[in-house]
Design goal:
The structure is a single chain. It contains 16 helices and 14 strands. By secondary structure, the chain is an alpha+beta fold. The strands form 4 sheets. A 6-stranded antiparallel β-barrel has the order 1-2-8-7-4-9. A 3-stranded antiparallel β-sheet has the order 12-13-14, with helices on one face. A two-stranded antiparallel ribbon has the order 5-6. The longest helix has 29 residues. The two termini are 52 Å apart. The structure holds zinc ion. The site of zinc ion has 8 residues, from loops. Zinc ion binds next to loops.
């Protein structure tokens, strides 16, 4: 788009205009591109124009509807933004309506002549969880009425040993979404911080030798593809340095529906520039992110992590108990990173027919937990997976939702604010079709078709515009709850029939608030008349 604008400005000069597409800022890339310059891709420009017009129609036509309905003219709706808001609000609703279930984790502490170890009770296939009454039934078979040490002799026999080899392949190189997610998880960086640092690595640094060079390829991409040039560099480097870990080619990511054509994953420009060497001229945070990108790229060419998994199955009184062990080999990609411990053999040396005696029942009361809120990283991954939005706008979309105070972040989790939920409820009542996953996906597909030079820009815009106008005319299907200052006299349970009823007053419904400390507070819609308040699901 920028190139197109520049070209328009320069038109009419006495020179020919070329377009160079640089995936990285390096001498070799520049020379290659100068060797075969191309021109502006008018189909791509057309598709981008259509995208912008459609996004403007969405914003200009729907935002005023929000102002009218919710009496706030700072509110806004956006095609991608509103879909993401919907996901976050949906999760909030799932957390609100979640009913915890109690269950038990039961283990037997046993001993053979040499060792003591713990066996897990094996749940019958048709059961999802072990309920307290069923666990007590198991104990009863052995003459125990409660958990704890056994005073009489009972034993279990080893019946089978299941053994299988496992293979974990290294993940493909980074795309924008996986880089943001991993940097957040491993380095504690926010998405915007990650992108800022990645941008500086892309733009380039002055190395110790005084040369100026880019360190990584373009950081906004939904592809994990590795070009043949980069592949050869990686194979060369690995052959010299880690020959025993080398596999033929990189792990390939799943082909994304919407991956933008010739893009590559986020790769180091020169694998021979090791993180240790780069530390010499990078700031500490830059060095950490470079190391992450560099290792992930090289790992993708390495052997899978392999090993053996063993499951020892003991039989008691018609029920089974299991001991699992995992033994890893150090010839896989994980052995390359010193901080990744390999799974070790428990070394019990057990044989079929071995008897073990039960020393103690270990019992733990457990509760199922509500779904977890999205993090910036996981929501961006969902955007990439579903094709909603573009790598260049992931971070911006979340920033806009935060700026509008529709969502907020606490302890790295994203929660919907009451305002965000109101906006979302209104959008769903009137424009549900436009903020659905499948509609957004189809729209991206149509825009991709335009970018390939097929389809018609105007008819796509026209049909979208007509759809928006039609939905605007139709009456909303649901009445919006007027929650401000108790204007509404309709009982809460009628407004939100799907919401869980308050167990205390049985009139209100359960509401949630996501606290600044990252905890969910459950309370009643009749607050302060009903004082139900809990940090646990009710
Ligand atoms: Zn209540």
């Amino acid at each position: 788009m920028i190139a197109k604008h520049i070209a328009d400005e320069l038109k009419g000069g006495k020179f020919h205009l070329y377009r160079l597409r640089l995936k990285e800022i390096s001498k070799s890339e520049l020379l290659t591109e100068i060797g075969s310059p191309s021109s502006i891709d008018s189909f791509l420009v057309e598709s981008q124009v259509a995208r912008r017009v459609i996004d403007r129609i969405f914003g200009f036509e729907i935002s005023p509807e929000l102002w009218k309905a919710l009496k706030g003219n700072s509110l806004s709706a956006g095609r991608v933004q509103s879909t993401v808001l919907r996901w976050i609000c949906q999760r909030e609703e799932e957390i609100r309506n979640f009913t915890p279930e109690n269950y038990v984790s039961l283990k037997a502490l046993v001993s053979d002549s040499k060792d003591e170890f713990l066996l897990d009770y094996v749940l019958p296939e048709e059961k999802e969880r072990l309920l307290e009454k069923d666990a007590l039934e198991v104990l009863k078979k052995y003459g125990s009425s409660k958990p704890g040490p056994l005073s009489h002799k009972e034993s279990l026999v080893l019946k089978f040993i299941e053994e299988k080899e496992y293979k974990n392949f290294p993940p493909p190189p980074f795309s924008t979404a996986s880089l943001q997610e991993t940097a957040s998880r491993v380095l504690g960086m926010s998405s915007s911080q990650t992108m800022k640092i990645a941008q500086s690595l892309f733009e380039g640094k002055k190395t110790k030798k005084g040369e100026y060079t880019g360190l990584i390829t373009y950081m906004r991409t939904d592809s994990t593809h590795v070009s043949s040039g980069k592949k050869n560099l990686a194979l060369g480097f690995l052959k010299e340095n880690f020959p025993s870990l080398l596999r033929g080619g990189p792990t390939k990511g799943k082909t994304k529906l919407h991956a933008q054509g010739a893009h590559e994953g986020i790769l180091p420009i020169n694998p021979y520039l090791t993180p240790d060497e780069a530390k010499g001229f990078l700031k500490p945070e830059e060095a950490k992110l470079y190391e992450l990108i560099w290792s992930r790229f090289l790992e993708s060419f390495m052997n899978p992590e392999t090993g053996t998994e063993r499951n020892y199955i003991f039989e008691g009184k018609k029920e089974s108990w299991s001991l699992k062990e995992k033994e890893g080999k150090s010839t896989g990609y994980k052995g390359f990173r010193k901080n990744e411990p390999l799974p070790k053999d428990n070394g019990n040396g057990l044989k079929i027919g071995d008897n073990v005696s039960i020393l103690e029942w270990q019992w733990e009361d457990k509760k199922t937990s509500p779904p977890v809120r999205y993090t910036e990283g996981s929501i961006v991954q969902k955007m990439e997976k579903t094709g909603v939005g573009r790598p260049s706008t992931y971070t911006q979309t979340i920033a806009t939702l935060q700026k509008r105070k529709y969502i907020y972040e606490a302890k790295k989790k994203l929660g919907a604010s009451p305002l965000g939920e109101k906006v979302n409820a209104f959008l769903i009542s009137s424009f549900e079709e436009l903020i659905g996953e499948s509609f957004t996906k189809d729209m991206e597909k149509s825009l991709d078709v335009l970018a390939k030079g097929e389809g018609n820009k105007l008819s796509l815009i026209d049909s979208f515009y007509k759809k928006v106008l039609k939905l605007k005319k139709e009456k909303p299907k649901n009445i919006l709850p007027k929650t401000e200052k108790g204007i509404s006299k309709i009982p809460d349970t009628m407004q939100h029939p799907s919401r869980k009823k308050c167990p205390k007053c049985s009139d209100g419904t359960i509401l949630t608030k996501f606290s600044k400390k990252g905890k969910t507070i459950y309370f009643c819609s009749n607050y302060p008349h009903c004082d139900l308040l809990s940090y646990e699901p009710v």
